[in-house]
Amino acid sequence: SCGVNEPSRNRNIIFQRLQAKDEKKEHIAVEADDKIIIPATSCSEPRQSTAHVQFTPSFLGGSQLHHTEGDTFEYTITDLPDDRAGQYALSLRLCNVHLKQQPLLLTVSGGETSAGGGTEDRDVVGVLSIVVPYTVGEWEWTDPVTIHLVPGTNVLGFSRETPNFGLSIKDIICTPIP
Protein backbone atom coordinates (compact mmCIF):
# COMPACT_ATOMS: atom_id res chain seq x y z
CA SER A 1 0.00 0.00 0.00
CA CYS A 2 1.22 3.51 -0.77
CA GLY A 3 -0.24 5.09 2.36
CA VAL A 4 -2.03 8.04 0.76
CA ASN A 5 -5.46 7.70 2.37
CA GLU A 6 -4.97 10.15 5.23
CA PRO A 7 -8.18 11.70 6.60
CA SER A 8 -8.61 15.23 5.21
CA ARG A 9 -8.71 16.86 8.68
CA ASN A 10 -5.18 15.53 9.32
CA ARG A 11 -3.83 16.77 5.96
CA ASN A 12 -2.82 20.20 7.32
CA ILE A 13 -1.03 18.64 10.31
CA ILE A 14 0.80 16.23 8.01
CA PHE A 15 1.81 19.07 5.67
CA GLN A 16 3.18 21.13 8.59
CA ARG A 17 5.15 18.13 9.84
CA LEU A 18 6.61 17.56 6.37
CA GLN A 19 7.61 21.21 6.01
CA ALA A 20 9.41 21.14 9.37
CA LYS A 21 11.12 17.80 8.85
CA ASP A 22 14.74 17.91 7.70
CA GLU A 23 14.74 14.89 5.40
CA LYS A 24 17.90 13.41 3.95
CA LYS A 25 17.74 13.90 0.17
CA GLU A 26 18.04 10.87 -2.10
CA HIS A 27 20.16 11.36 -5.22
CA ILE A 28 20.00 10.42 -8.90
CA ALA A 29 22.31 7.47 -9.66
CA VAL A 30 23.64 5.77 -12.77
CA GLU A 31 24.01 2.00 -12.46
CA ALA A 32 26.73 -0.12 -14.08
CA ASP A 33 24.31 -1.07 -16.91
CA ASP A 34 23.77 2.68 -17.59
CA LYS A 35 20.23 2.73 -16.14
CA ILE A 36 19.48 6.10 -14.59
CA ILE A 37 17.65 5.70 -11.26
CA ILE A 38 15.80 8.82 -10.11
CA PRO A 39 14.32 8.71 -6.59
CA ALA A 40 11.04 10.63 -6.72
CA THR A 41 12.10 12.94 -3.89
CA SER A 42 15.33 14.00 -5.63
CA CYS A 43 13.51 16.88 -7.36
CA SER A 44 15.45 19.90 -8.47
CA GLU A 45 12.10 21.76 -8.18
CA PRO A 46 10.54 21.90 -5.67
CA ARG A 47 13.35 21.13 -3.25
CA GLN A 48 11.00 20.83 -0.26
CA SER A 49 7.42 19.72 0.25
CA THR A 50 4.75 22.12 -0.95
CA ALA A 51 0.98 22.01 -0.59
CA HIS A 52 0.69 19.87 -3.75
CA VAL A 53 4.08 18.12 -4.03
CA GLN A 54 4.79 16.35 -0.75
CA PHE A 55 7.77 14.22 0.26
CA THR A 56 6.65 11.48 2.64
CA PRO A 57 8.15 8.32 4.16
CA SER A 58 7.52 5.23 2.03
CA PHE A 59 6.38 1.80 3.16
CA LEU A 60 9.05 0.47 0.75
CA GLY A 61 11.73 2.33 2.71
CA GLY A 62 13.21 5.71 1.93
CA SER A 63 10.75 8.32 0.75
CA GLN A 64 8.16 8.96 -1.95
CA LEU A 65 6.55 11.95 -3.65
CA HIS A 66 2.80 12.54 -3.39
CA HIS A 67 1.40 14.79 -6.15
CA THR A 68 -1.96 16.58 -6.23
CA GLU A 69 -3.44 19.48 -8.18
CA GLY A 70 -1.55 21.18 -11.01
CA ASP A 71 1.90 21.86 -9.54
CA THR A 72 4.94 20.71 -11.49
CA PHE A 73 8.01 18.86 -10.27
CA GLU A 74 11.35 18.58 -12.07
CA TYR A 75 14.50 16.48 -12.09
CA THR A 76 17.82 17.72 -13.43
CA ILE A 77 20.29 15.20 -14.83
CA THR A 78 23.66 16.95 -15.06
CA ASP A 79 26.90 16.13 -16.84
CA LEU A 80 25.50 13.36 -19.04
CA PRO A 81 28.52 12.21 -21.09
CA ASP A 82 28.34 12.06 -24.90
CA ASP A 83 28.48 8.26 -24.84
CA ARG A 84 25.39 8.08 -22.58
CA ALA A 85 23.25 10.49 -24.60
CA GLY A 86 20.49 8.95 -26.71
CA GLN A 87 17.17 7.13 -26.42
CA TYR A 88 15.91 5.89 -23.05
CA ALA A 89 12.77 4.05 -21.94
CA LEU A 90 11.34 5.99 -18.97
CA SER A 91 8.99 4.36 -16.47
CA LEU A 92 7.67 5.51 -13.08
CA ARG A 93 6.84 3.31 -10.09
CA LEU A 94 3.64 4.77 -8.72
CA CYS A 95 0.61 4.07 -6.59
CA ASN A 96 -2.91 5.47 -6.58
CA VAL A 97 -6.33 4.64 -5.27
CA HIS A 98 -8.52 6.42 -7.83
CA LEU A 99 -9.90 4.74 -10.94
CA LYS A 100 -9.80 7.86 -13.12
CA GLN A 101 -6.48 9.73 -13.21
CA GLN A 102 -5.21 12.54 -15.38
CA PRO A 103 -2.10 11.49 -17.33
CA LEU A 104 1.30 12.77 -16.30
CA LEU A 105 2.69 15.25 -18.79
CA LEU A 106 6.45 14.93 -19.23
CA THR A 107 8.50 17.73 -20.75
CA VAL A 108 12.08 16.81 -21.63
CA SER A 109 14.44 19.76 -22.02
CA GLY A 110 18.11 19.50 -22.83
CA GLY A 111 21.16 21.38 -23.93
CA GLU A 112 22.29 24.67 -22.56
CA THR A 113 23.84 27.89 -23.71
CA SER A 114 25.23 30.54 -21.39
CA ALA A 115 25.74 34.12 -22.47
CA GLY A 116 28.05 36.10 -20.21
CA GLY A 117 27.13 34.08 -17.13
CA GLY A 118 23.47 34.74 -17.86
CA THR A 119 20.42 32.53 -17.97
CA GLU A 120 20.59 29.04 -19.43
CA ASP A 121 18.34 28.34 -22.41
CA ARG A 122 17.12 24.79 -22.86
CA ASP A 123 15.60 23.34 -25.98
CA VAL A 124 12.47 21.28 -25.42
CA VAL A 125 13.36 17.86 -26.78
CA GLY A 126 9.89 16.38 -26.30
CA VAL A 127 6.54 16.53 -24.51
CA LEU A 128 4.91 13.19 -23.72
CA SER A 129 1.73 11.98 -22.05
CA ILE A 130 2.16 9.10 -19.58
CA VAL A 131 -0.94 7.05 -18.76
CA VAL A 132 -1.41 6.66 -15.00
CA PRO A 133 -2.66 3.11 -14.35
CA TYR A 134 -5.21 2.40 -11.63
CA THR A 135 -3.07 0.45 -9.15
CA VAL A 136 -5.68 -0.32 -6.45
CA GLY A 137 -3.25 1.10 -3.86
CA GLU A 138 -0.34 -1.12 -4.91
CA TRP A 139 2.99 -0.07 -6.43
CA GLU A 140 3.16 -0.61 -10.20
CA TRP A 141 5.32 0.60 -13.07
CA THR A 142 3.89 2.74 -15.86
CA ASP A 143 4.29 1.56 -19.42
CA PRO A 144 7.60 2.98 -20.67
CA VAL A 145 7.79 6.03 -22.90
CA THR A 146 10.78 6.81 -25.10
CA ILE A 147 12.74 9.97 -24.32
CA HIS A 148 15.89 11.45 -25.83
CA LEU A 149 18.61 12.72 -23.49
CA VAL A 150 21.32 15.03 -24.84
CA PRO A 151 24.92 15.37 -23.62
CA GLY A 152 25.24 17.75 -20.67
CA THR A 153 22.19 18.82 -18.70
CA ASN A 154 18.67 17.44 -19.13
CA VAL A 155 15.54 18.48 -17.23
CA LEU A 156 12.54 16.18 -16.85
CA GLY A 157 9.44 18.18 -15.86
CA PHE A 158 6.21 16.48 -14.76
CA SER A 159 2.75 18.01 -14.41
CA ARG A 160 -0.92 17.05 -14.67
CA GLU A 161 -4.00 18.91 -15.72
CA THR A 162 -6.59 19.71 -13.08
CA PRO A 163 -8.78 18.47 -11.62
CA ASN A 164 -6.89 15.36 -10.64
CA PHE A 165 -6.59 12.93 -7.75
CA GLY A 166 -3.44 12.39 -5.75
CA LEU A 167 -0.88 9.81 -6.69
CA SER A 168 2.38 8.71 -5.11
CA ILE A 169 5.63 8.12 -6.99
CA LYS A 170 8.52 6.09 -5.57
CA ASP A 171 11.09 6.32 -8.36
CA ILE A 172 11.74 6.78 -12.06
CA ILE A 173 13.94 4.52 -14.16
CA CYS A 174 15.48 5.49 -17.49
CA THR A 175 16.79 2.40 -19.33
CA PRO A 176 19.05 2.92 -22.37
CA ILE A 177 17.59 1.74 -25.67
CA PRO A 178 20.34 0.16 -27.80
Sheet of most strands? 8 strands, antiparallel
By DSSP (H or I, 4+ residues per run), the number of helices equals 1
CATH H-level superfamily title:
Galactose-binding domain-like
Radius of gyration: 16 Å
Total domain units: 1
CATH class: Mainly Beta
- The gross shape turns out to be globular
Low-pLDDT stretches are 5-24, 113-119
Mean pLDDT, to the nearest integer, reads: 82
The CATH architecture: Sandwich
Tell me the number of strands.
12
- How far is the N terminus from the C terminus? 34 Å
How do the helices and strands follow one another from N- to C-terminus?
HEEEEEEEEEEEE
* Proportion of residues in β-strands: 35-45%
CATH topology: Jelly Rolls
Spell out the key features of this protein.
single chain; 178 residues; mainly beta; Jelly Rolls; 8-stranded antiparallel beta sheet; 4-stranded antiparallel beta sheet
Describe the structure.
This protein has 178 residues and is mainly beta. The chain has one domain (8-176): Galactose-binding domain-like (Jelly Rolls), CATH 2.60.120.260. The chain contains one helix and twelve strands, in the order αββββββββββββ. The protein has one helix at 8-20; strands spanning 29-30, 36-39, 53-57, 63-67, 73-80, 86-95, 104-113, 121-130, 140-141, 145-149, 152-159, 167-176. The strands form two sheets. Strands 1, 2, 3, 4, 6, 9, 10 and 12 form an eight-stranded antiparallel beta sheet that branches. β7 and β8 (121-130) form a beta hairpin. Mean pLDDT is 82; it is low at 5-24 and 113-119.
